């Protein structure tokens, strides 16, 4: 725990087997071999692996670790770990510790319970984990002690990916390969790799844990299924960037400390728009590390909250009526030499290259909008996207006025106006320096260019950021490959560059929208432009198995068709399970908590009417009588809707057809019915003595931290 002062320099990375530690502890040749594996993906020699494993073990044990785990990210979207102690044999009663290169490189968890979408059933293969040497091993510290976590990929024996990391690594490879082709064409001969870089801003809610534990809905589903609006919500906007309460500040300090120790470069923290809502953001890293780190951040948020008797809610919409949470996935491409490919350059030459990369993203986002939408789909996000607090469910792209104008001028070709002439030819020698756009503060766009990176704002707060980045990397890789094909065969490079940008702007400008994404007008305008408005998860995830998706991902070696179909099924199953748990929790709360309390209250009022009548027969008892009637009326309706919910749930379960249709039933019948149940539950809450309501109110949850 962080008491008193923190020496940031000393603390940062303290629990990471990082470059510095490796350099210090490994023989030079081993260090070099490992570095080559990390930087260039060269397979590691088994004898080298033994030395690395041993050094890792010694380091971990010196730090106080007793166990190691192959830390991986199955398709549940959270991380998995099975702890093994370093204890190997016992010699004359003394412990001998061992950690071999073999154990470092490959693990075989009996992980048969993780979702595989039929992959393992089909091939009767078990899963195994493979060390991802590019992501540093780290020590995770919890009440159970210190554990050496080795980031790994998780695959079936037949090679199919069973996790989130493998396709992400493949997609990073794909985009690197294609981006390098473009860079070579622009004369860059030195860059060896292009990295997708990612900085994910994470939103979350923090509430009192005692209150949290009194709410079955929060415990079981992560969101409130009931809750009448409190007198005050977020309308005063006094929480956003407001000063931190001591309890929260304390939590955040502890959180930063824990994350820094694990080498996670968290930088900013602040209060968000909704009461009890906050945000934490790290400095960007390569997409693979950023994804690992975001998982650790989510895990640590929960753990540290618990320590402070707080509960951290990562759900996309824990409370109706106030903003939900998302993740802003900031994404860019950068060479291993540190050149950001979306940084408008200073010379015409650099700018031509910039415009080619920018155009590639414009086309990729328009062409693969449905996949991007699918990558941001989960049950929680269905309550958030399009609810005037998050971007709409329509994918569009914000570029800012200046950049849009430049592109429009390029599209128009050689005009006569002076203004146009300034921007006209993007040929290597003629393009003037691009002005840096200062208008990047559009908050309503799902996909915004923010100066030298893109901010994908649809991403769900509770989900892994792997999928959105897999789609981005692969879609951009595809467009870059098309562009590279053309440019490599071009007779006149400059005019081909010009022609490509022009063509992309012409064909894909419908995706560019700089206005208010929350407005009604935009929904109409988007429809006119032919942009899809995909409102829910079930509809969104069909994109995974479209022909376009299969072609894209198989071409770039990111997913096989089998893997895509598996993921699609898992997503549908997950959706069904979530709605099912929510419905069952709701029914449980109504029957065991709300109805008994309301019945008691009805009886109380009836008794009181009788007693008062006896004491003073002439008194006007309208107030009591009306309250009694209103309670009974809403109670009856609540009961009726709940019975109907039970019936549709049963019906949904007994449906034996196609899983997609089954998911549709859960969406259209079960989830819809739940809305009705909630109406009467919330109404009753407003009619009852707050001290008698069976679970803590929104007021307490949101304002009592
Ligand atoms: P906002 O104005 O959206 O709140 P922040 O400064 O909080 O912006 O977050 C921006 C995020 O974008 C940070 O995580 C930052 O590290 C990240 N970022 C900055 N540059 C890049 C880049 N080139 N690639 C990826 N992410 C980046
Ligand atoms: Mg942001």
UniProtKB/TrEMBL annotation:
GO terms for molecular function: glutamine synthetase activity. Keywords: Coiled coil. It holds the Pfam family Gln-synt_C. The keyword Coiled coil applies. Residues 66-159 form the GS beta-grasp domain. One of its GO terms (biological process) is glutamine biosynthetic process. Residues 621-648 form a coiled coil. Residues 164-594 form the GS catalytic domain. PANTHER family: GLUTAMINE SYNTHETASE (PTHR42974), TYPE-3 GLUTAMINE SYNTHETASE (PTHR42974:SF1). This is Glutamine synthetase. It comes from Caloramator proteoclasticus DSM 10124.
């Amino acid at each position: 725990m962080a008491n008193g002062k923190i020496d940031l320099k000393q603390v940062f990375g303290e629990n990471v087997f990082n470059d510095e530690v490796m350099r210090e502890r490994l023989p030079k040749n081993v260090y070099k071999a490992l570095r080559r594996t990390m930087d260039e993906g060269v397979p590691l020699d088994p004898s080298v692996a033994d030395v690395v494993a041993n050094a890792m073990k010694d380091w971990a044990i010196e730090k106080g670790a007793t166990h190691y785990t192959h830390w991986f990210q199955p398709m549940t979207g959270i991380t998995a770990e099975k702890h093994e102690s370093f204890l190997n044999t016992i010699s004359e009663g003394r412990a001998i510790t061992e950690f071999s290169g073999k154990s470092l490189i490959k693990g075989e968890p009996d992980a048969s319970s993780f979702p595989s979408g039929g992959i393992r059933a089909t091939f009767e293969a078990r899963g195994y984990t493979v060390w991802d040497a590019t992501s540093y091993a780290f020590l995770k510290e919890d009440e159970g002690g210190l554990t050496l976590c080795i980031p790994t990929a998780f695959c079936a024996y037949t090679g199919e990916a069973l996790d989130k990391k493998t396709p992400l690594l493949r997609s990073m490879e794909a985009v690197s390969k294609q981006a390098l082709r473009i860079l070579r064409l622009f004369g860059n001969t030195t860059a060896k790799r292009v990295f997708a870089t990612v900085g994910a801003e994470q939103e979350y809610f923090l509430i009192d844990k005692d209150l949290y534990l009194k709410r079955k809905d929060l415990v079981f589903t992560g969101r409130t299924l009931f809750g009448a609006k409190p007198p005050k919500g977020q309308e005063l906007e006094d929480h956003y960037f407001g000063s931190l309460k001591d309890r929260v500040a304390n939590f955040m300090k502890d959180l930063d400390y824990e994350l820094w120790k694990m080498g996670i470069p968290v930088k900013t923290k602040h209060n968000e728009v909704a009461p009890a809502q906050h945000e934490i953001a790290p400095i960007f890293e390569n997409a693979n590390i950023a994804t690992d780190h975001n998982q650790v951040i989510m895990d640590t948020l929960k753990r540290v909250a618990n320590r402070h008797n707080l509960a951290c809610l990562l759900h996309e919409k824990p409370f109706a009526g106030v903003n939900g949470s998302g993740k802003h996935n900031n994404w860019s491409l950068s060479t291993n030499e540190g050149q950001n490919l979306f940084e408008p350059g200073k010379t015409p030459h650099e700018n031509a290259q910039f415009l080619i990369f920018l155009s590639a993203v414009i086309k990729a986002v328009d062409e693969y909008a449905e996949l991007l939408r699918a990558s941001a789909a989960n049950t929680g996000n269905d309550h958030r996207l399009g609810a005037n607090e998050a971007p709409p469910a329509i994918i569009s792209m914000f570029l800012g006025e200046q950049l849009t104008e430049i592109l429009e001028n390029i599209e128009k070709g050689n005009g006569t106006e002076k203004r146009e002439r300034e921007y006209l030819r993007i040929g290597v020698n003629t393009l003037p320096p691009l002005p840096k756009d200062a208008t990047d503060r559009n908050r309503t766009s799902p996909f915004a260019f923010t100066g030298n990176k893109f901010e994908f704002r649809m991403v769900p707060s509770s989900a892994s950021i792997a999928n959105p980045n897999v789609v981005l990397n692969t879609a951009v890789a595809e467009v870059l490959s098309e562009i590279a094909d053309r440019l490599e065969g071009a007779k006149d490079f400059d005019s081909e560059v010009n022609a490509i940008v022009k063509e992309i702007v012409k064909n894909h400008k419908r995706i560019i929208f700089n206005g208010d994404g929350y407005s009604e007008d935009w929904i109409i305008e988007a429809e006119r432009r032919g942009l899809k408005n995909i409102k829910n998860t079930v509809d969104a995830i069909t994109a995974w198995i479209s022909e376009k998706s299969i072609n894209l991902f198989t071409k770039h070696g990111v997913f096989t068709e089998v893997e895509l179909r598996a993921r699609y099924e898992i997503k549908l199953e997950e959706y069904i399970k979530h709605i099912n748990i929510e419905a069952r929790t709701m029914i449980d709360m109504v029957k065991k908590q709300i109805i008994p309390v309301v019945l008691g209250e009805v009886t109380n009022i009836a008794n009181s009417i009788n007693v008062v009548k006896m004491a003073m027969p002439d008194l006007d008892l309208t107030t009591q009588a009306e309250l009694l009637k209103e309670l009974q009326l809403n109670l009856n309706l609540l009961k009726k809707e709940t019975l109907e919910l039970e019936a549709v749930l049963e019906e949904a379960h007994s449906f034996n057809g196609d899983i997609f249709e089954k998911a549709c039933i859960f969406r259209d019948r079960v989830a819809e019915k739940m809305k009705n149940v909630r109406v009467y539950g919330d109404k009753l809450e407003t009619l009852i003595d707050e001290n008698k309501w069976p679970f803590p109110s929104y007021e307490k949850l949101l304002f009592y931290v």
